[in-house]
Amino acid sequence: MGFLNALFLAGTATFALPVVIHLIFKLRKRTLVFSSLRFLRESVLRETRRLRLRDLLLLLLRCAACILIALAFARPYRAGAVLAGPSGELREDLVLVLDDSPSMAAQDGSTTRWQMAVDQALAAAGAKNLERLGLVLTGDPGRPEVELARNFEATKEALAKRTRPGFVRGDPAQALQTALDLLADSAAPRRRVLLISDLQLNQMDRTALAEAGQRAVTMPRPVQIEIRPPHADGKAPGKLNNLSLDEVRAKSDVWLEGRPVRFAVRLSNHGDGEASALAVRLLSGDKILAQRTVGLGPRDAREIELTALFPNAGPVHGRVEIDGRDVLPDDDRRFFALHLRDSIRAVIAEDRLRESGAWLDESYYVRMALDPRPRGSEAPKEVPPGAVRVDTVAARDLTPAVLKGADVLFLVGVTELPAATLATLEQAVQAGLNLVLFLGRSDGTLATGFYNGPFWKEGKGLLPARPGDRFEGNLVEVRFSSLDTFAVDHPLFAPFKGEIEQELRRPKFLRHFKPDPKDLSAGERPPGQVLATFSDGSPMAVERPFGLGRVLMFSFLPRPEKDTDLPKRTVFVPLMHQIVKHLSGIEQGAQRQLTVGEDLTLASLALQPQTTVRLARPAPHNDTLDLTGADHLTTDTIGLYTATYQPGQLAEQAQWAVNLDPAESELKAEDLAAIQALYASNLKEEDPDEGPKLALQADEELKAQAPDWRYLLVAALACLLLEVALRDFWGD
Q1: I need a labelling partner for 95 at 20 to 30 A (CA). Which of 182, 336, 509, 668 fits?
Q2: What pLDDT sits at residue 48?
Q3: CATH fit for domain 243-341, picks 2.60.40.10, 3.40.250.10, 2.30.30.180, 3.30.470.10
Q4: Fold that domain 92-238+667-700 belongs to in CATH
Q5: What is the DSSP letter of 474?
Q6: Sheet of strand 92-98, all strands in order from the earlier edge strand to the far edge
Q7: CA-based nearest residue to 436, from 462, 467, 409
């Protein structure tokens, strides 16, 4: 037995006060006068014995009350009992870390891994020795789902209302760090974190997990970390067979009447069995637009193509489904959303356009590669327009009206732009227009004052890099440049890998400029990159962002007379089309596809920040949020998110397809023993004498929690009440 305020033990001496008072009253005698002394002796003897007994009991009760009150003020605590709960085990602060990643929804035996994990968590939450309890979910690891507190029911209710895990990949390491934050100020004799997880391989970062274990050991009050699989028998998660849809991608976002849109669909078989007849369907609403039956071997993956015919351009959405009938239904469907354009609009501008002899235009070969129709005339009705619609204008006529709705602007052989036109062009690129520059003119001139001046603007202008010196070659002297290196993984050149790469290297370049690569990082704009170089080492193609748009610059003029024979090569037309595809968003950003957990940014709609946007979320939310054009939202469920807004007179809609991370479908677990070994130093076998030892070392807060002083005060009050009852009802 120990005492917090041992000085109050001196107060036990107050028991002498009742003794002194008792003795004083005992010395006082009273004389009684009786008229008759008959029977007096016998009566006095009986009464004296009764009063002595009462007085002795009153004295004992008063003394006991004094002693009990003094002991209560001394705040006693019992060795071991301070730290033990009703079950006799050490009191414990416990934080449950529950893995709620999508893989926990997998059917494992007769139930899901999630339900098994919840059952384990509820069992741990019902332990009798718990002092406080908290809950952290790996899907939202930065904050506790339930704070560490004595409110055990709050944790149990939070677990009971979660009928399934989330759709966001979990971060167990960060969740453990949050749990340790909760226990940092814990004064409980035992502090423990219990992680229940299926140890999905894609989320188990051993380095980060080891850091959490090291922190737990070195905390002022060390914390035990325990790892359990969801299975009640404690066995490691087994391998489950699963089929999944990993990707759905439209190969083009251009709509042409009567032509179907092609979708690339990637499927995987993560099991050891064969899927011989797997039905794959592409749907819009409840309507099946395309269907195929495919086979997948064990541990196999393949990409197939589905084609769907849409009646008109505009926003389209839908989903692809497979009849997986496997352990994880969430990855058996995948949503898509995109905006089909009726064509890609390219504007080509040069200094001036000829009234006759259009083939002498500086941009003639670029224009014919993209849209081989005569300039200035309408295409015959029986000839449908191509995927790229080209408008050719003089550079001085580049007005906001001309640029409105354009995807790509080509400047070919332009020597100078009026200040107002240059300002208009800068605003358009800043807002998202993509610009392609071809340097030089067929007569070999270049207005260096314009290019090095307002076009460059000390690195703040549109020009990615200054032209530099000019290379002059000669075929007779066999002096020319050719393509040397290029970024094979960049979207501009990726389609030319393989045998066709040699076609890129055949063209000869007799005249080109030599930009300095250092210019790509000069100025206040974000830095650019060299996409291709000539054999003399100078850049052939460079790219640099400008606001929401990009500027792609080629340091040559695509004319075959004195500059290059590239326009006469078979690779020229595909290269020009790939430039348009790359910059207009085909096969890239035109589709609004997100992985759950990523941010849905409304700024991509190019709205004013104050524009009101109503965002409808899919199940299980099924609600609508009121946002603005400057807001963003972190997606937390799969499905279609629909934004409704009104930038002008008419209301418009945009949709995002949010899908599961394909890595969740593998259902491949990290080695349980290896993860548990990271925390071996945290787990110690309990010492039978641990309670008394800890009690002697317990801090003031723990000792102050001992309830014995309350019991002593209650006992003192009981003595006083009993003393009053004896005194009043056992008469003199």
Answers
A1: 668
A2: 61
A3: 2.60.40.10
A4: Rossmann fold (3.40.50)
A5: B
A6: 146-149, 130-137, 92-98, 190-196, 224-228
A7: 409
Whether the CA torsion 229, 232, 236, 241 is positive or negative: it is negative
* Six token digits for residue 193: 């974190």
Distances (CA, A) of 123 to 50, 520, 533, 669, 723: 60, 62, 66, 24, 49
Contacts by residues 673-677 (CB-CB < 8 Å, ≥ 24 positions apart): 673/236, 674/206, 675/199, 675/204, 675/206, 675/209, 675/227, 676/227
Question: Which string of b and e fits 423-456 if b means at least 16 CB within 10 Å?
Answer: ebbbebbeeebbbbbbbbbbeeebbeebbbebbb
Backbone angles phi, psi at 220, to 5 degrees: -50, -40
Q: DSSP 3-state assignment of 549?
A: strand
CA distance 69 to 719: 11
Cis preceding-peptide flag for 620 (omega within 30 of 0) = yes
Q: Which CATH class is domain 393-402+412-584?
A: alpha beta
Q: Give the DSSP letter of residue 527.
A: P
- Residue 493 is encoded by which pair of tokens? 């050149």
Distance, C-alpha 89 to centroid of its chain: 40
Cα 473 to Cα 510: distance, rounded to the nearest angstrom: 4
Tokens of 578: 């790939």
* Segments in 142-226 forming alpha helices (H): 152-161, 172-183, 206-218
Pairwise CA distance, residues 290 & 284, whole Å = 10
Q: Is it true that 92-238+667-700 and 393-402+412-584 share their CATH fold?
A: yes
The single-letter DSSP state of residue 583 is H
Instruction: Please report, as a single letter, which amino acid is at residue 676.
Output: Q
CA 250, chain centre distance (Å): 25
Mean pLDDT by 10 residues, the chain (732 residues): 70 72 62 54 58 75 81 70 54 93 91 94 90 94 94 91 92 96 89 94 91 92 92 84 92 80 93 90 93 93 94 89 88 92 86 82 92 62 62 91 90 92 93 93 88 93 94 89 92 85 92 94 91 95 93 95 92 92 61 87 82 92 92 93 84 90 90 89 53 48 65 82 76 53
State the pTM of this model. Answer: 0.64
Helix, strand, coil shares, percent, the chain, to 5: 30, 30, 40
Alpha-carbon distance 180 to 214, whole Å? 11
For residues 28 and 24, what is the distance between their CA atoms, to the nearest angstrom?
7
What secondary structure letter does DSSP report for 151?
-
For residue 338 the two structure tokens come to 């995109």
Candidates 131, 132, 150, 148; CA nearest to 86 is: 131
Helices (H), 546-667: 572-584
**Strand bridging mode 539-546 / 388-394:** unpaired
CA distance linking residue 367 with residue 388, whole number of Å? 10
Q: For residue 59, give both structure tokens.
A: 């004295």
Question: What was the pLDDT predicted at 726?
Answer: 76
Q: Rounded to an integer, what distance in angstroms lies between the CA atom of residue 670 and that of residue 657? A: 30
